[in-house]
Design brief:
Blueprint (H helix, E strand, L loop, with lengths): L5 E5 L4 H11 L4 E6 L2 H11 L2 E4 L5 H15 L4 E4 L14 H29 L2 E5 L12 H21 L5 E7 L2 E2 L1 H6 L1 H7 L3 H8 L9 E2 H12 L10 E4 L11 H4 L5
Parallel strand pairs: 1-2, 1-4, 2-3, 4-5, 5-6, 6-9, 7-8
């Protein structure tokens, strides 16, 4: 009988990280739940049995402690899901030094330090990494300079890691969701809700009106993609950017005017 996989999840207390924890717990995985706030992690751990490690994934100094604890408890790591992230709002001239550094830290540094720390144990087990990108890894939204830049950089990290560590059996992939109904995205709906008088459901409907599937993803749907990528079924996939956006990025934006005339 195969031993259960040990999976490290950063940003595990809410959103996609939380959904990944629930999905993998259902398969009997040993979970390591990492995040900055103890309360949401403890809540997820109560349901999944995960090991809680409180700290900032973007702080390289915390990883020595994390890795020692993981090795002592589980002996190794089979997969890393780097779900930690954050905002990066404002166009370039409105982005302060602190805002820029915060966007890079939460969205890029957290992924890099997590991967760098876990790689020695992942190599031992020929494991895999999933980085949580975004369709902002592929295209620019308005006035999110820091976020867009950091998420684009994640694809470079993804490809570099895949190339360098593939010969040692480690697979690395990036998931690029569109809108996902999470607490972070709920916050991003607030300006629309204030401007248009929308409720939350109407705001999500507004931002997905031109998405082929006409809806945002659930966190559980993205967790299913992450689960697939660390599974044996995805054993030949590495260095890929898997777009999970309801079809958003296939839309030819310059033709939307024709669609709004009543076309298909």
């Amino acid at each position: 009988m195969a031993m259960p996989k040990t999976v490290v999840i950063t940003g595990a207390g809410t959103g996609i990280g939380e959904a990944c924890a629930r999905r993998l717990a259902a398969e009997g995985a040993n979970l390591v739940l990492i995040g900055r706030r103890a309360e949401p992690l403890e809540r997820v751990a109560a349901e999944t049995g995960g090991l809680v490690l409180v700290g900032d994934a973007a702080d390289s100094a915390t990883w020595d402690r994390f890795i020692a604890t993981i090795r002592d408890r589980f002996g190794g790591i089979d997969a890393l899901l780097a779900c930690a992230g954050g905002h990066g709002l404002g166009c370039a001239t409105e982005t302060s030094d602190a805002g820029w550094q915060s966007a890079m830290r939460s969205n890029l540094d957290s992924a890099f330090y997590s991967a760098r720390a876990c790689l020695p144990l992942l190599i031992e087990r020929r494991g895999s990494v999933v980085l949580l990108g975004s369709i902002a890894s592929l295209a620019a939204g308005p006035e999110v300079c820091g976020y867009t830049t950091a998420k684009h950089a994640l694809l470079g990290l993804n490809r570099s890691l895949a190339r360098d560590y593939g010969p040692q059996g480690v697979r690395v992939n990036c998931v690029c969701p569109g809108w996902v109904r999470t607490p972070m995205a709920d916050e991003e709906m607030q300006p629309l809700m204030r401007h248009y008088g929308d409720d939350l459901d109407a705001a999500y409907a507004r931002v997905t009106a031109d998405v082929p599937l006409r809806r945002a993803a659930s966190a559980e749907e993205i967790a299913n993609v992450c689960r697939f990528l660390i599974s044996d079924e995805a054993s030949i996939i590495t260095g890929a950017a898997i777009v999970a956006d309801g079809g958003s990025t296939v839309v030819d934006v310059p033709t939307l005017a024709y669609t709004h005339m009543g076309g298909a």
